[in-house]
Design brief:
Blueprint lengths: L10 E6 L22 E7 L21 E4 L5 E5 L2 E7 L3 E5 L1
Antiparallel strand pairs: 1-2, 1-5, 2-3, 3-6, 4-5
């Protein structure tokens, strides 16, 4: 998936994955009771931030296509070109899944 959002520095753009519709026991969860998902797919990454000397960029730990788990209240939700995305700092990414 390609998106025309180019994040700056150590920011990443994530497409949120859908929240679970049912519980493990098969109960359907209504929309009002669903929690905000904390998992998504990275669709764009920034070039990385500069080191303290300002002469080299620190490489990013994630790549486009990675599935990640991020902090619950991290990032900024944006709507762009009919899609909903989350722009967050690389520091808000907790783990790469899979």
């Amino acid at each position: 998936m390609s998106v025309n959002i180019k994040p700056l520095e150590d920011r990443i753009v994530v497409k949120q994955l859908d929240a679970e519709q049912t519980t493990a026991s098969g109960l359907v969860i209504p929309d009002t009771a669903k929690e905000k998902p904390q998992e998504g797919e990275v669709v764009a990454i920034g070039p990385g931030r500069f080191n303290e000397d300002g002469d080299d960029r620190i490489p990013m730990d994630v790549a486009v296509g990675d599935k990640v788990i991020y902090s619950k209240y991290g990032g900024t939700e944006v709507k762009y070109a009919g899609g909903e995305y989350l722009i967050l700092s690389a520091r808000d990414v907790l783990a790469i899944v899979g």
